[in-house]
Each structure stands twice: as C-alpha cells, then as structure tokens.
Amino acid sequence: MKFLNIKSIHICAAVLMLVLAGGCKKAIEIGPSLVTANAGNAFSSNSAAQSVVAGIYSRMSQGSFFQGQYGISINMGLAADELTNINSGASSFGPFYTNNYSPALAPSFWAEFYKLLYFCNTAIDGISNSPSVTGNVKNQLLGEVKFLRGFIFFYALNLYGTPPLTLSTDYTINNTIGNSTPDALYKQIINDLKAAQAALADNIYVDANGATVTDRVRPNKQTASAMLARVYLYMRDWKNAEDEATSVLGSATYTLLPQQNISQVFLKGSRETIWALQPTSLVYLNTIDAYYLIVNTNYRASLQFPISPQLQNAFEPNDARFTNWVSTFTTPATPAVTYYYANKYKVSSVSSTIAVTEYPIVMRLAEQFLIRAEARAQQNNLTGAATDLNTIRTRAGLGATTASGQADMITAIMHERQVELFTEWGHRWFDLKRNNLLNDVMTTVAPTKGTTWASFKQLMPIPPADIQADPNIVQNPGYN
C-alpha cells in the first residue's frame, strides 16, 4: 500500500511548488513567500497540510541530491574511491571524479538543500500555527518534517562544513544569517530528530492519516533513532550512538535478510529497510540510480560508472555481496574489456508499464549493526563489537573477524562498511573524512583519476551567488 498514488503525488508536488516556492528565488536568497498570502489555504485543513508534506517527499524523490546522475550516491562515489568514470562524454561528472569542484558547480547540492529547508520551515510554521490542523495528524506531520529537516542539515553540514542554519521563512533573516558552526548545526539536528522520535509512530509505518501501511516511505520513531545513531557516531558520542542503534536493532519490525536472500535487500518490501523514498517520477518508475549504474540492453547498453579497482579488490573471496551486488559488463569492442559494476538495484527500465519493485533505500538495518560495532569498539567493548561485525560478515558468507585489539577492530569495521555500504549515500566519503583518512586515501587515488588531491577538497564550495546575496557567508577555504 502506498501513502499516495503517483497522480496524487504529482498534484501535491504542484501544490507545494505553487504555495511554497513562489518566493524561493535562490538557495538562501529567498524573497517574500506566497505562504503569507496563502497560509489559510495551504494549512486550512488536515488534508491540505498533508498535501504540502507529500509535495516535500515528491520533491525529495525527484530532487538532484537524493538520487540519479546528480545525486549523492553516484557523485560522492566518483569523488571517493568507489566508482570510475569511463564515459568521457559525461562532463557533468568530471568535477566530482577529479575532485575539481568549481564554485560554479556548487549549486548542485546546495540549492536543493536550501529549497527543501525552506519548504520544511514553511511546513513546520504553517502546521504549528494552524488551528485547522489537529490532533494526531498535526503531531505526525510535524514529526516527519522535523525529521526531514534534521536529515537535510546533516548532509549540508558534512558536505559544506559551516552552512547557514536557516530555521526561518523570513528572507530578511535568511539573507543575513551567515555561516553557522558544526556545534550549532548538530545541536539543531539532534533537537529535530528527538522531536521526531517523540512524535512518530513506534514500530509501525503509517500513512498520512495514521493508518498502518507496509511501504516504509514515511519515517517512524525507529527511523529517527537510526538517524540519531549515525549523527552521534559522527559526533564521536559513542555511548549515545550505541544506545540509539540498539533501540533500532531491538525492534521486531526489522530483520537482517539471510545470505540466501541477500539479492532481495534492495526490494521495496525488504524488512531490512528502515526508510525508503517512493519513486514519483513518471519516467523512472523504480530507482534513478539503477538507470545510471547498471547495464540493461533495452535502455542503457553501455556502462558509465564501473566500480573502482580499489573497491573491487576490497572484497574477500566468496563474499556474497560481491556475487549478488556486483555484476560484469564486457565491451563489444576488440580487444574486449570486462568491467565490474554496482548492481544492488536490478531494474533500470524507464518503461511506463513495468512493475515497481524497487524503492531508493535511504537507511537500512545493516548500517545500524556497523554503527553499534564501531561505537562499541571505540568504548573498548571488543567482544560486543566483534559480535555485531560478525553478524554482517556471516550474512555475507564470511568467517568471523580475526581483528585483535582496538585499532585492528576499528580498521576491520571500516573495511566492512566499505564493502557493505558502497554506492549508498556517500558513506565511503564520509567514513574516510570523519576518521581523518581522506587525505591519505585520496593522495593515492587521485593520480589514478588523472588529478591531484588537496586537503581543502574535503568540503564543497559554496555557490558565489549566495555569498553575494548574503555578505555574512564566507566561502570555504581553497575556493576563493
């Protein structure tokens, strides 16, 4: 059961854009909003508010950050050591692959973040202040949108360092707010996620009216807890990271699929899924990532982004993830060349008649085992860390870890994250960055891409237009 059908989602998206985006001229430079004039209409009832929130989900599903050729999974996979760009004609990917991000490229993620944050802030204000949005619907919608805002701020922080902390729809505030700090951003992210925890359904997934559903396309309490576990891990708050991950792992709602079903992890009905996006495109009915990552002779007969030699060589012999999540493509040219490519998603069709069997999975249970393993290792609970690590290794058909000592255990967990979470949501890039390994790895990898590495490239550049609009915003070092 879907929370809305595709036609309804597109209507809701249109409503969202008309009501919310009329004054959204730039990522931060936001003029007077149509919300002021239309607040009575946008939030005049439970159903009207539900339509606004559905429009935010639709925007996310189709947005340039969340999936596809401009999404984080492909582009940060190229930026790190996961993917190779063999398509010389794909010029839009070159700056990521060579780590030569120019300020002109910067709007690709930044603009999407701040449009969505503007929509979220408008929804939070409108729902909170509307007497017509009532009861459980009000609580649920506020919980969902606060979760989404915390999720977006998390990525803005980790990609840009000190992005503005915009919590207002007032353009006079947003255009003078300037850079924030990691501490302030993380504080707000935690506040939003804790508010979501308190408001959202516990151990079930519900639609906009609170009815139980099977699709996991709206966050619940465990989704907020899973995101909090990741946030605390990045903050090096090991105890809280362990506790939040444990709360998710203790839920009967989720199950790590066994080895014999590992090829089904990324199906829309997977019980390993914590949160997924519902595809709303009228063209890409399954996932946009699959269209660009895998080969389908009916739709994309050539390969663009094979996995890198570094990733290929990271897999141990007989790893079921390599067998089920990686495929090969041999070129028709002479001499033939065989490439390996990420095949977690199986359906690349753009046919309007094909069945929808895959959703873009944002968060899944395996990450929580690895979060808890790392948090335990950092607290020197090596037995507990090994137990969680071995849960993932056993599912992959591998033997128990041989790591001994804290440093070895942490290294083993980082390796397991590399082969478990590849091409998912920039995990590899962020893992290297937060463990102070990015400079060392990229100094070695960059020459294989035909480029050179510099430490400032760990952060993306801020769009010049937004610096001009807000003189209090300072460009990240290295991009002036």
Characterise this structure.
With 480 residues, the chain is mainly alpha-helical. The protein has one domain (6-279, 361-469): Serine Threonine Protein Phosphatase 5, Tetratricopeptide repeat (Alpha Horseshoe). Helices cover 48% and strands 5% of the residues. It has 20 helices and 6 strands. The strands form 3 sheets. The chain has a two-stranded antiparallel sheet with strand order 1-2. A two-stranded antiparallel sheet has the order 3-6. A hairpin with a 7-residue loop joins β4 (326-330) and β5 (338-342). α1 runs antiparallel to α2 (35-42). The model is unreliable at 1-15 and 17-37 (pLDDT under 50).
- What is the strand arrangement across the widest sheet? 1-2
Strand content: under 5%
CATH topology annotation: Serine Threonine Protein Phosphatase 5, Tetratricopeptide repeat
CA radius of gyration is 22 Å
How many domains would you count in the coordinates? 1
**Tell me, what's the shape?**
globular
Average pLDDT taken over every residue: 89
The low-confidence parts are 1-15, 17-37
Domain RagB/SusD: 336-479
Organism: Mucilaginibacter celer
Subcellular location: Cell outer membrane
Family: Belongs to the SusD family.
